[in-house]
Design goal:
The chain is of the alpha+beta class and about 525 residues long. It is about 50% helix and about 15% strand. The protein is built from 17 helices and 13 strands. Strands 4, 5, 6, 7, 8 and 9 form a six-stranded antiparallel beta sheet that branches. Strands 3-2-10 form a three-stranded antiparallel beta sheet, with helices on one face. It has a two-stranded antiparallel ribbon with strand order 1-13. The longest helix is centred in the N-terminal third of the chain and has 25 residues.
Length: about 525
């Protein structure tokens, strides 16, 4: 941690040296994939970005980010988290005269409100941008506020973590127009830089410092031109922090993370870039057409050059030859190597073309198995992102909605007792496996023992488990056992009225109902 009593600007400049090795490696990865995510040092709006020769890196990054986004925040109203409490928390809440049934209903309302917030805001766009930064650079800071969301890239912030990886300090640096500053701060900035008075297109640096206050809370304040911005100091709990510091691959004792590109396919992309440059130059040389004429030949080169297609000229064909590069064998070796590298990169990026094997006929079962194996390789990424991204997002969204009054009546709950349970990622993969086993069990029983085997299954429980495995809320969708019995009884009454008449129901309806129900159960 930097020394106490220093301004955020001074601390930022000290921590830049610790960040530099990670920044250099991240820029190398970005240069091979998405250069605009992390431009080189000294880049300005008037500079041109040097694009890589191959597009496989950028396509793989965008595809992997989209897959992660669909896995973490699935569209279509699919439930991706639920609120859970342990037994001790239930005792605390019920001790506050809160009915347990009402409490569960409130939890469902909170869950629906959070899902609706994600569907109606641009949060997915910010999360997708953060995922691209994580894949390429390995680090990103997501700031969530009611005014909007923003993603800070690696060269816009410094960070400090303790040896266990817990966040201790974040300082972001932004360049803003002096016109947006309060009058007193604008005067200070102009005294520090006299050129601001003459050129309002210049900008000043705004530092936002977020540092840990104690085990459960942080404090935030801003600085411009060495002066604290009045009214910028604010405190908040760690569980409700608007600052979500993310890293893709974490290493013990390091404050920054490593990108997926650096970990999985950086060497392959570099080799592909170098080989493509050589192959492209060789292809351009091979495509150049030049004819040579024997100096002692009577054939006039100028006549050949001006001769239109299909015309007749005097000369010997053996005196005219076309220049050939003759590097076909060497280029074949390079192309075969490029194909092997492409397959490795596509597998690392989980591209669809890496799934299908090179054959005339590929079965659907093969494609499903290979797709499942590739998706399973996301397990480490999904577990890390579920723990650090989704958990923090749920708590932050709930905190914002409570602060704005969207969640009416939820103030009675201590949100510290609630524990978001992420139901996507590895949890979703496990549910899909359970769904397959349930279906195999039901189909196997029907195949081996016939339709009568269905009487040994508890269908309401099977339907509830199937809905849970698919991430569907079964409430108001699956009938309860009581509702099914009431419908059966109403149907039996109608059948008795049609068969025996209304008088039979008044005289011995209950007895007849029991007999008919027992007969129906015995027949089932």
């Amino acid at each position: 941690m930097a020394g106490k009593g220093q301004s955020p600007g001074e601390i930022y400049k000290q921590l830049e040296r610790k960040r530099q090795p990670f920044l250099d490696r991240a820029r190398d990865s970005a240069a091979l994939t998405l250069p605009s995510l992390l431009p080189p040092s000294g880049f300005s709006d008037s500079s041109d970005l040097q694009q890589p020769l191959q597009s496989l890196g950028s396509r793989g990054c965008n595809t992997l980010a989209s897959k992660l986004l669909l896995s973490l925040l699935p569209p279509g109203g699919q439930q991706w988290f639920e609120l859970a409490v342990d037994e001790q928390a239930v005792e605390v809440l019920t001790g506050q005269n809160i009915d347990e049934t009402r409490m569960e209903e409130s939890f469902r309302e909170i869950t629906r409100a959070v899902h609706e917030y994600v569907e109606t805001t641009s949060l997915r766009v910010s999360v997708w941008e953060a995922l691209r930064h994580l894949i390429v650079t390995g680090n990103a800071v997501l700031h969530c506020s009611p005014a909007g969301n923003r993603v800070f890239r690696l060269d816009e912030f410094v960070i400090e973590r303790d040896p266990r990886g817990n966040l201790e300090l974040i300082i972001t640096r932004e360049k803003i127009n002096p016109m947006v500053l309060p009058e007193e701060l604008r005067a200070v900035a102009m005294r520090n830089d006299n050129s601001l008075d003459a050129d309002w297109e210049k900008s000043v640096e705004l530092y936002t410092c977020v540092k840990r206050k104690d085990d459960q809370s942080f404090i935030q304040f801003q600085e411009v031109a060495g002066q604290i911005v009045p009214g910028s100091e604010v405190g908040f709990l760690e569980d409700e922090s608007p600052w979500i510091a993310l890293r893709m691959v974490s290493m013990s004792g390091e404050s920054y993370g490593r990108g997926w590109i650096e970990e999985s396919c950086y060497g392959d992309l570099r080799c592909m870039e170098s080989l493509l440059e050589s192959v492209t130059r060789a292809a351009a040389a091979s495509a150049k057409v030049i004819f040579l004429v024997d100096p002692g030949s009577p054939t006039d080169p100028r006549e050949l050059d001006k001769a239109p297609t299909g015309s007749i000229r005097q000369g010997r064909a053996s005196d005219v030859q076309c220049v050939q590069v003759g590097k076909h064998a060497d280029l074949s070796v390079a192309m075969n190597t490029l194909a092997q590298i492409r397959d490795r990169v596509e597998s690392a990026m989980l591209l669809k073309t890496a799934v299908q094997r090179d054959a005339e006929r590929v079965t659907r079962y093969e494609l499903e198995m290979l797709s499942r194996e590739l998706d399973a390789s996301l397990g480490g990424l999904l577990s890390a992102l579920s723990a650090h991204l989704l958990n923090a997002l749920v708590r932050r969204i709930i905190a914002m909605m409570r602060a704005t009054g969207t969640l009416q009546g939820m103030e009675v709950y201590d949100m510290g007792l609630l524990r978001p349970k992420i139901t996507v990622g590895l949890e979703q993969m496990g549910r899909f496996e359970e769904l397959n086993r349930l279906d195999q069990m039901l189909a196997g029983a029907a195949q081996n023992f016939g339709p009568s085997a269905m009487t040994y299954f508890n269908m309401p429980e099977y339907l509830a488990r199937r809905a849970a495995a698919l991430g569907i809320d079964p409430e108001a969708l699956i009938k309860t056992q009581e509702e099914v019995q009431e419908e059966q009884q109403a149907q039996m009454r109608m059948q008795m009225a049609q068969t025996l008449g209304p008088k039979a129901i008044e005289v011995g309806g209950e007895r007849m109902m029991d007999i008919m129900q027992n007969q129906a159960q015995g027949a089932g």
